[in-house]
Design goal:
By secondary structure, the protein is α/β, with parallel strands linked by helices. Helix content is 31%, strand content 28%. A hairpin with a 5-residue loop joins β5 and β6.
Length: 324
């Protein structure tokens, strides 16, 4: 089914005592109460869109959790619209907010009321059955332990100069201009998920892919020699151990790696996922396109983490190629 309009929204939630509270908005044009959401603008990815729209409509800075629902419906003119929803919580760390652009609040003609309310009240206020269904899916995920999930984002480095045209050391092969633009777009995706730790192959094309986010959020970019192509070929056990260590860490993390290492990474990730989740992994070479990211939502453990959801996004080239 062709989708003409794409949008994103979130169930923004918090705990107050034993109760779960969620954030709702009132739209005077439609005189309805709804989950905050909005349409993709320009070449932004869906996670970027979600973060921007929630900030515009509610004034709240959020960090995305797991995806929870997709709504599809026809607009009055006949076009088909798709809205993707995440769980989300308020993001308060100032250093992570530095990675985001300034966002203005929506005018009162679009949203005139914003409220936190408990789930029982939200069920009564929400104007559509579809939004009430999305709310129930969110509550089920929260009750299943979604607050404990963390993201591990696997990034394939942005486009680099071709090997055949580069006379220098392989480790110094730089990004192209197009690669630099997409690398800047990776910043927005990492920010949307509130990434707090960064690790990369020390080779320039990987390190420079994460450099924008590291600088804006003031997070130290850790360079790991075990993640290089050479280390993968000559020391596969050490490489595998590093991947397992990353998956077992307790905080949100992004790792930038090389295409030749992706089959081994996906094989290790597959051990932490049920078949239904594994079927959502990239299945064909090149596995991920340049600057594409695999967002892996994980229940962390020091021995056997469990993958609960996966997503894929690719930032746009600012010259106009759209992201997913």
């Amino acid at each position: 089914m062709r989708i003409h309009v794409r949008a994103a929204g979130a169930i923004v939630w918090r705990r107050r005592g034993r109760k779960i509270e969620v954030l709702l908005v009132h739209r005077p044009t439609w005189n309805d109460w709804s989950i905050p959401k909005g349409k993709v603008k320009g070449v932004e990815t869906l996670p970027e869109c979600c973060v921007r729209e929630i900030k515009e409509e509610t004034g709240v800075d959020i960090v995305l959790g797991i995806p929870i629902d997709v709504q599809r419906y026809r607009l009055p003119g006949g076009k088909r619209k798709e809205v993707r929803y995440w769980l989300a919580q308020e993001l308060s760390e100032a250093h992570l907010l530095r990675a985001r652009p300034a966002i203005k609040r929506a005018p009162r003609s679009e949203v005139d009321k914003v409220i936190w309310c408990d789930v029982r009240t939200a069920r009564k206020k929400l104007s559509t059955a579809a939004d009430r269904t999305t709310l129930e899916k969110a509550v089920a995920a929260i009750n299943a332990g979604a607050a404990e999930y963390v993201v591990k984002i696997w990034v394939r480095h942005a486009r680099a100069r071709k090997r055949a045209s580069w006379a220098g050391e392989e480790s110094d092969r730089p990004l192209t201009r197009s690669g630099q633009r997409r690398a800047a777009g990776v910043n927005a995706i990492l920010s949307a998920y509130g990434v707090r730790d960064l690790v990369t192959s020390p080779w320039k094309r990987c390190a420079h892919t994460l450099r924008s986010y590291a600088r804006s959020s003031r997070i130290v970019l850790r360079k790991c020699p075990a993640l290089t192509e050479t280390a993968y070929l000559h020391h596969p056990d050490a490489f595998a151990n590093e991947i397992k260590t990353i998956m077992c860490t307790q905080d949100s993390l992004a790792a930038c790696v090389h295409r030749p290492t992706l089959p081994a990474i996906l094989d290790i990730l597959g051990r932490y996922a049920k078949p239904a989740i594994r079927r959502r992994f990239p299945a064909d070479d090149p596995w991920l396109k340049t600057a594409e990211v695999l967002v892996v939502h994980t229940l962390p453990s020091q021995s056997q983490p469990r993958i609960v959801a996966v997503e894929r996004f690719r930032p746009a080239d600012s010259c106009g190629q759209t992201g997913k």
